[in-house]
Automatic annotation (TrEMBL):
The keyword Zinc-finger does not apply. Keywords: Cytoplasm, Methyltransferase, Nucleus, S-adenosyl-L-methionine, Transferase. GO terms for biological process: methylation. This is EFMT2 methyltransferase. InterPro entries: Efm4/METTL10, Methyltranfer_dom, SAM-dependent_MTases_sf. It catalyses: L-lysyl-[protein] + 3 S-adenosyl-L-methionine = N(6),N(6),N(6)-trimethyl-L-lysyl-[protein] + 3 S-adenosyl-L-homocysteine + 3 H(+). GO terms for molecular function: protein-lysine N-methyltransferase activity. Residues 50-180 form the Methyltransferase domain. Transmembrane segments: none annotated. GO terms for cellular component: cytoplasm. SUPFAM superfamilies: S-adenosyl-L-methionine-dependent methyltransferases. The gene is Eef1akmt2. The keyword Zinc-finger does not apply.
């Protein structure tokens, strides 16, 4: 065994674990949530060269689907270097060289992260909200970051499994107005019908 093979094995294990967790996470935000986003962009006739940012890209699969649908100006960020390594692997496998991927903390975005027409979040705002350390401050910072990276009149598509429509309207009232709610699967529990997932489109004022 050359000495670096054990390091490789550890790295593979880490990626494998990430893939397993990533796949578990995809239960909430699987195929149908990607289809919902792409359908909306197409219905809205968003030009294929509009700059799109995927906030918390994870395995990068949404960007790959967007690229397959003809979108050409795609950026994915994630604060986890393993996530970006994984999405780079997915990008290479799919041959999508022009999808841009960066390790970025959205709560402290770098200066070059700006001028996007479309920002998409599936589960990242949820994860920030669950942070035990100053969740309220982090949510406010998220909204400030969003205002700095998204152009005026740009669109923000958020998919959440923690927040109701009313709560999200409240969180994003500074600087954003709601355009529409996207249909999500409904579930029935104890005779009450509810949505396990909320998907909203906001426009930056």
């Amino acid at each position: 065994f050359p000495p670096d093979s054990s390091w490789d094995a550890a790295y593979e294990r880490e990626l494998q674990t990430f893939q397993d967790i990533g796949d578990a996470g995809e239960i909430w935000f699987g195929e149908e949530s990607m289809v919902r986003i792409i359908k909306w962009l197409e219905k809205q006739k968003v030009p294929h060269d509009s700059p799109v940012l995927d906030i918390g890209t994870g395995n990068g699969v949404l960007l790959i689907e967007l690229a397959k649908s003809g979108y050409t100006n795609l950026t994915g960020i994630d604060y986890s270097p393993s996530a970006i390594q994984l999405s780079e692997k997915v990008r290479e496998k799919e041959g999508m060289a022009d999808v841009k991927l960066k390790v970025e903390d959205f709560l402290a975005p770098s200066a070059e992260l700006s001028g996007f027409e479309i920002c998409i979040d599936k589960g990242t705002f949820d994860a920030i909200s669950l942070n035990p350390d100053n969740a309220v401050g982090k949510r406010k910072q998220y909204v400030r970051s969003l205002c700095s990276v998204l152009k005026p009149e740009g669109f923000f598509l958020i998919t959440s499994c923690n927040w109701t429509k009313e709560e999200l309207l409240n969180e994003f009232r500074e600087g954003f107005e709601i355009l529409e709610e996207l249909p999500t699967p409904k579930f029935c529990f104890g005779g009450r019908i509810g949505n396990s997932v909320t998907a909203l489109v906001f426009q930056r004022k």
